[in-house]
Write a structure and sequence with these properties.
alpha/beta; 4-stranded antiparallel sheet
Length: about 475
């Protein structure tokens, strides 16, 4: 719709005020789009004041304001001095949120495709939520009771609804946790590699990220202890279950070691449990379920398993840190919209939710296996392990291959994959690609995406030899 609006905006600019635009029927035939798309594009131009619609007559170019003199370009240079040198770089995160161009196969990003989203169940839940008498009233500041209880049950252990704070999505929960728990300039221990969003949020909060290496069994507790001792850090951010980007699950023996190391350091563990509802094989309980002392601050989200705009997550904490988290959310944003909270509660409380989870589990298993088979067939030089859940496969590239250059080459071939370098808080230990199996439209499209990636690697290798 945006591209149609752009075309019509350009056409209107070429015409004089009062000139008639082509009819909707003519635009549908010329542009090859639906009548609804044309109608929405014209409505956007009307809202911008560029056209006026006269029922029964058509759409006309609006009168332009008179007496407006040409203005010199605005000088915004003064703002550089006022803002100082603290910048917020959305870089990698913004790229992950940008849909691929038309015709490009999506094997990057982090959301389910529309075909795997519970769209009908969400529509039903949203409609029911909107009919509630208090749908648009203020919710309790910590979140509606039923939703807090559902998140508490999902974690288990000694967690109660009183420990749960509902937030506007997992990324907001991360930002609240980092800013509430750590002052600017403080060190934050993070897995290496790790989720790009936490690196961006930490930098925006003025924190110094310190890498702790991850292997196939999760973070290494010995190196975690070394990092705490060297830095004096008071928090460690981790993804113990279906780690992004590697897919690793923290092994049973390391779970207690991580908590013991944090206990010895007098530090918190920020557990990002974003992918629990994307399990292919059974997942262990959250670390928070085995934490009697309130050492773990737990983040759980519905967004990844449902739809991008279901921005509902939970921050779970006990003790003084819980009060600080709640206080910061109130100061920042008051509360997430009640209607969205009610929609989420209706969704997860309906039989449709478990049906959806079973459907997603089966689809992810099929897609993961298909991607692994295609990579083994088309790109035998890539080294990877099949993940037990989540949406991505982490593949090490052959020595001498530049992952960023290869990802760019893959885009030119018509497939999006994610270069591994941005996932490292410091220098990477090799070249990697994060290759997604959830976002493509079908298994057949996954196979085609791998063929395009193989062409990109062939072309890259040929260029390197020259």
């Amino acid at each position: 719709m945006a591209s149609v609006a752009d075309l019509l905006r350009t056409e209107a600019a070429r015409l004089r005020p009062g000139d008639r635009l082509p009819s909707s029927r003519a635009l549908v035939a010329r542009l090859g789009v639906s009548p609804v798309t044309v109608s929405r594009a014209l409505a956007r131009l009307a809202a911008e004041g560029l056209v006026v619609t006269r029922p029964g007559s058509g759409t006309f170019v609006a009168e332009r304001p008179r007496g407006v003199r040409a203005r010199r370009p605005a000088d915004h240079g003064w703002q550089a001095v006022a803002l100082g040198d603290r910048a917020v770089d959305p870089g990698g995160v913004a790229a992950l949120l940008t849909p691929p161009p038309e015709g490009v196969i999506a094997m990057g990003g982090g959301y389910l495709p529309a075909s795997l989203q519970p769209l009908q169940a969400l529509a039903t839940a949203a409609a029911r939520a909107a009919r509630r008498p208090d749908a648009w009233e203020r919710p309790p500041l910590a979140g509606i009771g039923g939703l807090r209880a559902w998140f508490a049950r999902a974690v288990g252990g000694e967690i109660t609804p009183a420990d749960v704070l509902i937030t506007g999505g997992g990324q907001q929960a991360i930002g609240i946790a980092l800013r509430a728990m750590l002052p600017p300039g403080a060190p934050l221990l993070v897995e290496s590699p790790t989720y790009q969003g936490v690196l961006s949020a930490a930098r925006a909060a003025g924190l110094h990220t310190v890498p702790v290496p991850v292997d196939g069994s999760g973070v290494r507790p010995d190196l975690l202890a070394d990092a705490f001792a060297m830095t004096g850090a008071r928090a460690f951010y981790c993804q113990p279950t279906f780690h992004n980007p590697t897919g690793a699950v923290l092994s049973p023996d390391r779970r207690e070691q991580v908590l013991s190391v944090a206990r010895a350091a007098g530090a918190f563990v920020i557990e990002d449990d974003f992918a629990r509802h994307l399990a292919i094989e059974p997942a262990p309980p959250p670390l928070a379920a085995d934490d009697p002392d309130g050492r773990v601050v737990h983040i759980s989200s519905l967004t990844k398993a449902a739809a991008p705009s279901l921005r509902i997550a939970a921050l779970i904490a006990r003790g003084p840190v819980a009060e600080r988290l709640r206080a910061l959310q109130v100061v920042d944003s008051f509360f997430p919209a009640r209607h969205l909270q009610e929609t989420a509660l209706d969704l997860v409380g309906s039989p449709a939710w478990e049906r959806h989870r079973r459907t997603v589990r089966a689809a992810l298993r099929e897609r993961r296996d298909a991607l692994a088979a295609a990579l083994a067939r088309e790109l035998p030089g890539l080294a990877f392990e099949s993940p037990r859940g989540g949406q991505h496969l982490w593949a090490r590239l052959p020595d001498g291959v530049d992952d960023v250059a290869l990802a760019d080459a893959a885009l030119r071939e018509g497939v999006v994959v994610n270069a591994g370098r941005p996932y490292f808080p410091a220098e990477p230990d090799g070249a990697y690609l994060r290759i997604g199996y959830a976002m493509a439209a079908s298994v057949a499209e996954l196979a085609e995406g791998v063929r395009r990636l193989a062409r990109a690697l062939d072309g890259y290798s040929l260029g390197a030899r020259r």
